[in-house]
């Protein structure tokens, strides 16, 4: 297995040469005081070292050993506890956190790169700080000042970790029907009772305390999703002097046996009158939890990019070393028994498909992250509104499109290895097993698609979509006469027009037919993602072209050629997706139950 | 997990209502004496019972327990040995074997259905009889009369099993560079020395003897694939009275740790001067082995269909039971806390994509199987030539297209379960892990695509393709005015024309550019497979339409609606694939090595 190397070159290209991140940071008062280009670069460099040196070496052993459950106690795989301590002490958990509570206040466009490295090196491990950071965000946005002061500093420093407790055995997507109850206590706290399942890092030995954000229903809760409240429930009670008190009335009942991410604990959590604290207003817990969920959804998209990058690195190294058959144009390495498989067109096709989607996905994450920074720090209200809309629109695409592409990429990366890809020691099959969860948790990709199509497109009559389309249109207008972009502007213009037409088509059909949204959703999200990638590849071409002539590293010429491959061989899928959507929902909804078989 | 049920209704529909298998069997002298409709139906019924009652119950436990290696001895998971004995005693191993040596002489169109049931119930188990039957086929076609008489009867009865030993650590796809040596002994036998890896069921405790077909090089072998010979190497020597003699000088060095099919043993086999017997002519072993490989390739396609069917059954059962959220058209089951997820358009989309490809794939297998029966038994030489060409053309499509679709289907089937799909107990994640190997072994799907595009299309200048295109054209001509096929004939005609155009395009470009074949191959195979499925769905519409009016079971109306879904939502992909292929190989081959990263 190739050793994981953080893709710093590509990250710097995105931040400095595509998105002018330093310029953006300098322009935003809330950021300019925390970050400058040198600091950012040092952070990238250091994160790369930790990912490659400390986390990646535990990835395979963590998968093999898994977490252990013994009478409610969870022990992590060998090395995880030490690695976590190093990680926490480096300040990485609070990298994007509010400095007023001990966070480092770094912009998401930078934090996202760090997150990709961590997830690419060790997804099972990476889930723990990812959940902590998301819990902090929800607590920061919705918690009382008292709760924030009590919990955020310890969580930012990683001494305490966070977990999100939503799912119950009978309630996954449909949180409106959860049964966990919260009974008010006399002291203003609540007594939480119920069972939660699929709680990632719900119990473990890496942090001193675990802060659960738990969805539950108050006695006077209205039925459905409008009757859900959010509670902070610590594993150990926290005394007034911030020391740890008694073990709360909660326990981990068991760990799930699952397909992958074995290094992480997936817990059944039982609450038996555990003491918790209301976060935000009663019955508005789902909205508060969405602050965390949206963070995690982008985080899951980032996990996909990380895994795809790792799979590509392994596959490329193998393709350079593995000697098998001769090039169709004649032997390339005559002194060897065969040529490296990198010479074969179909191996190149596989690698380029991996590279095109992985780098396109990284660009997409950075693009969304930059909008997030605008939404958080921009001072112009109108612009902030647009930024909010863009984040809302793009988050489900980041979650679902990037993880769908990531599974494809990992499957292809496994395929490059032939039979060896199916064997554990090479690591490629683990990446497939691990990545598979990213399409499922934090709202399945089908749910993401429905969120995009229904809430983010149809519900606002395409207004959010217009923001995105305008962004692309501006780029096209600015660059339509640029010879560097010949062969890109025209197909990009067709693609965005196709997407706009389909968007309008679905908005129009949805009025008459409530099933149209669900029937179009997944294909629409794919179409959206491919079009967005086409836009970002065009931007990469624009940046790379002037530097390609004097490029001896192959970085810029490689960018140009990957873009060409994307436009020639992957973008045509948009035509098929658009046609499928236009054919409508009738063929799905016409089925009676028995006709399914 | 739903209990596996053999899809007998659909198999009977294919055999009796689409392909008139009984008519074909009656018309072929080699078959008419062995099979009649009643026998065939009894065989289907009985196979369904064994698959559901004896093999499926061992699928999950076999995955969990796996095979055990101890100092060269391999022990199978609990229950496998008994199940194998029942299976062998039922005569199932020799179902398609030559009656002159104890086989049952059944047609492939029937045997393929039985194989699907076995593989759908338990793929790890199914590999053992599948390899035995393939080894018998190669031995039957190329072995001496003495070898055939000595080995075939015991193999057909399953007392001895078969294995194929091709791969070596440095030689997978590129068999020309194998190092295993065969030294002639004075008695006409050979002494085999070398190491083989990835040998499925190479060692185990279910059969009394294991007959390895081993590729090795004779001392005077020319280099490359033309210097490979095929040897039969039994685990135990066979005495003149057919009793078992000494353990041959071969041993299982270890088992691979792999992603799935844990119930099967994947062996490293060491040969230290083991006594073997030449099968066929010296240096022509690869061709002889291809008899087995082509059998296994179709068999692997069948594995895909079986797994896809199992995943669909599980997903459908879950979608009917799992209550979550309300239908977009309003609550359907008001007395329940939520509606079954089957009401949601996107869940229907998932199930229909699974159903469309699984039933389309089963039809494809039956179509190929029927051509195989023609190739074997037809008396008209011209027609037999066409049948041979069709089998050659369609086999790589069956292997690769059906297994690619099968992985998609199993991934979707897992997705229907949401988070529960990632958990072992539900069985869906095992189907994904198991099915993943079908895209890799017996020649990766990339190799299948190259075989199709290079050897089966370009090399004969499209002649084999013409046979297929004529078959479709005949159907179109016969049915173009049939109102039952309105909405199908025109898109089918477009699809076959698109495929024919692309075929011609690649044949023409391949002359000038040797990389074009490899660059087009995978997309071409997809395009071919989708077009073939469209053809078969049209045939199913033709058969189902007249029966749909009086259909209370939903079977025929379900067929019609699934066909509509396929044409509306899946067939459009052909447009994108064709465009990608036309864009050529330049974007792949332009890359220098360093530009990959």
Task: Walk me through the topology.
The structure is a homodimer of 597-residue chains.
Chain A: H1 8-18, H2 21-27, H3 29-32, H4 37-55, H5 59-65, E1 68-70, E2 73-75, H6 80-89, H7 108-121, H8 123-142, H9 145-156, E3 160-165, E4 181-184, E5 190-200, E6 209-216, E7 229-234, E8 236-238, E9 244-247, E10 250-255, E11 266-279, H10 285-321, H11 345-377, H12 381-416, H13 428-436, H14 445-458, H15 463-479, H16 489-512, H17 516-548, H18 555-570, H19 573-582, H20 586-589
Parallel strand pairs in A: 3-6
Antiparallel strand pairs in A: 1-2, 4-5, 5-11, 6-7, 7-11, 8-9, 10-11
Give structural notes.
The structure is a homodimer of 597-residue chains. Chain A is globular. In chain A, the strands form 3 sheets. In chain A, strands 3, 4, 5, 6, 7, 10 and 11 form a 7-stranded mixed beta sheet that branches. A two-stranded antiparallel sheet of chain A has the order 1-2. In chain A, a hairpin with a 2-residue loop joins β1 and β2. The first copy, chain A, has 597 residues and is an alpha+beta fold. The relative contact order of chain A is 0.09. The longest helix of chain A is centred in the middle third of the chain and has 37 residues. Chain A has a domain of 134 residues. Chains A and B meet through α10, α11, α12, α13 and α14 of A and α10, α11, α12, α13 and α14 of B.
- Portion in helices of chain A: 55-70%
Largest interface: A-B, 103 and 104 residues
The value of Rg of chain A in angstroms is: 24 Å
Oligomer: homodimer
Structural class of chain A, please? alpha+beta
Strand content of chain A: 5-15%
Number of strands of chain A: 11
Rounded average pLDDT of chain A? 97
Helical run tally of chain A: 20
User: N-to-C terminal Cα separation of chain A, in Å?
Assistant: 44 Å
- The unreliable regions of chain A are none
Biggest sheet character of chain A: 7 strands, mixed
